Fold these 2 entries.
Entry 1:
Amino acid sequence: MPRALHRLLLVLACALVMLGSGLPAGAVQPDEMLKDPALEGRARTLSSELRCLVCQNQSIDDSDAPLAHDLRVLVRERLVAGDSDQQVLDYLVSRYGEFVLLRPRLSWSNALLWVAPFAVLIIGAVASILAFRRRRQAAVAAQAALTPEEEARFKRLLRETPPSPQ
């Protein structure tokens, strides 16, 4: 095999490995899956919205942790029992707290978390505008004020210069 072709195949193999490593793990086991495709689709959608309480930055759909497995099974059991998607989410939130949701709901208890980034941006913008205005006013004031030497020279020029006839 020519050396150039060998290098090309090696580069392609490395690229495929790198592309494949970026995909989610998909920890759902075949024995967890429901036979009804509609229910399984709902379960997968719900699983992607729920946080693994062990991994914390993964959904239970992507986590291999035993607790994530238990939560996936619980979601499927609740769906088979006839719960709606909202009822399943409400049940899990009542049991594990709102932390189980990857995207927490907006409520009075967490409103500060939702509002804080915008408040910081607004406060920063107002502070920047005020600082810019103060700096500009200080520059104008510095230019307008005469030093004692300049003031003495100005008075001397006024005395020496005869008034112009109109």
Note: The helical segments are 3-21, 37-49, 66-80, 85-96, 111-144, 148-160.
Entry 2:
Amino acid sequence: MLWPAATKKAIKVGPDREVVAVYPYRSSCPASLWRSLIAKAGRELTFAGYTNYFLWLEQARFGAVLRRKAAQGCRVRFLLGGPDSDLTRSRERDEGGSVFRFDDDMIVTPLLTHSVGHDAPTLHLRRHQDDGMFDRFVAHAEELWKRGTPVWEEGHE
């Protein structure tokens, strides 16, 4: 190989291969990326953000899209932070961060001190390995899901 260092930089082979793109702010992540990931997801849509209100503002007919996805068998989940919850305050202090999952793609916004979601650095991850960054953030969201309180029973609209 003539240029091993250049090739190694161009072709991701380690744990960083799960990092598709990096944005300095969630608000700089293109709305078209969110739309594309939502559209192509067929098994899993998880929105684990404190409020998730921005999705309804930025994505046209978002509710209709989610209803159609659910009717087609896609699992659609929202994990919202209860504003008066000790757990929410604790998680914000200890870990902070939002996880938005679209099958094997994910947008992650680790929150920084004194910032809100749209100001958080943002990573677009794609699953390529067991126990990589993608799986670690899935485990984080699943742990939060287990500790959550259902707003209504499953299957209820």
Note: The mean pLDDT is 83.
